[in-house]
Design brief:
By secondary structure, this protein is mainly α. The chain is 77% helix and 0% strand.
């Protein structure tokens, strides 16, 4: 994959992820969190499974189990924790915590897979997180919602590494479909046992579900899994620092939330962090090109 295509796909994916926060916030006016996310992923997974029905399905119990485990972390864990945490913290704070994923990927990748990352990359994710925090005005408070949100970030990091490790065994769109189905079923079970589920049918609520199913799930997960399989998971995850920035901009457009001056400063830190994580230098880039002539 050439770098221009890679950057374009990253921007589309992170933009869709960012928009999901205000859209989800609107959706929670009409449904409970676990129930809304369960509907989202069961519908998205089922629809995508139909669209890719002619492609090879997971083979044997081992591959089915792997797709279910990824769904447990990626769909149920990440989004379940992110939305449930909003009972105690704001959607902005939830997105900040969720997007600590790149730092956790590097930590887990170092200790669990033996991956080697340079000091500049560690500095980059730290700078990027500072930018995310500045983007939201440093209003985070540590409470139960903070820890639930952090659990979602850990799930996100675990799913990122598992997709990189197991992704070659699957067609990525097939994996996206069945992990969403698995995660959606887990969320519906959680809804049945932990909340008084409801869904209010209105034009707005139906549009919210359609957006979350088509753009926020089918398009987003298909692109995300493709990027993880074809690139370095830590570098790809570093771009998640753009998600809360897009979330702020889309919240301004959709919800009328005002954009403060510190958003621009935070955005500059985010861009610097992404540059530090992804910049390889001339010698390393030349060696990488020699080993991978087709590009990224």
């Amino acid at each position: 994959m050439n770098k221009f295509k890679y950057i374009c796909l990253i921007l589309v994916t992170t933009f869709v992820m960012g928009v999901a926060f205000p859209v989800g916030k609107i959706g929670m006016l009409y449904a409970t969190p676990f129930f809304l996310m369960g509907i989202r992923f069961v519908l998205a997974g089922g629809l995508l499974a139909l669209l890719v029905a002619k492609k090879p399905r997971p083979r044997g119990g081992r591959q089915w189990l792997k797709s279910a485990v990824i769904g447990l972390f990626q769909s149920a864990g990440v989004m379940g924790c992110a939305y449930y945490s909003m009972h105690w913290i704001t959607s902005s704070e939830s997105s900040i915590i969720t997007c600590t994923n790149p730092l956790i990927v590097i930590v887990l990748g170092t200790f669990l897979t033996g991956a080697k990352y340079r000091g500049r990359q560690w500095l980059g994710v730290a700078v990027g997180f500072v930018g995310v925090a500045m983007t939201f005005g440093l209003h985070m408070k540590f409470q139960i919602g903070t820890f639930i949100g952090f659990a979602g970030a850990v799930c996100f990091a675990a799913a990122t590494l598992l997709i990189k490790r197991w992704g070659a065994e699957f067609d990525m769109t097939v994996l996206a479909a069945y992990q969403m189905l698995a995660g959606g079923m887990v969320l519906l079970l959680l809804s049945a046992f932990t909340e008084h589920a409801y869904f209010t049918f209105t034009g707005t609520s139906v549009l919210v579900v359609l957006w979350l199913v088509i753009m926020g799930s089918i398009v987003q997960f298909s692109l995300w899994f493709y990027l993880l399989r074809n690139g370095d998971p830590a570098k790809t995850s570093a771009f998640l620092f753009l998600v809360p920035l897009f979330g702020v901009l889309s919240s301004w457009l959709l919800l009328g939330e005002q954009i403060a001056w510190y958003v621009s400063v935070g955005g500059a830190f985010i861009c610097l962090g992404i540059f530090l994580v992804n910049w390889e230098g001339k010698s390393h880039a030349a060696a990488n090109l020699a080993n991978h002539p087709s590009g990224m």
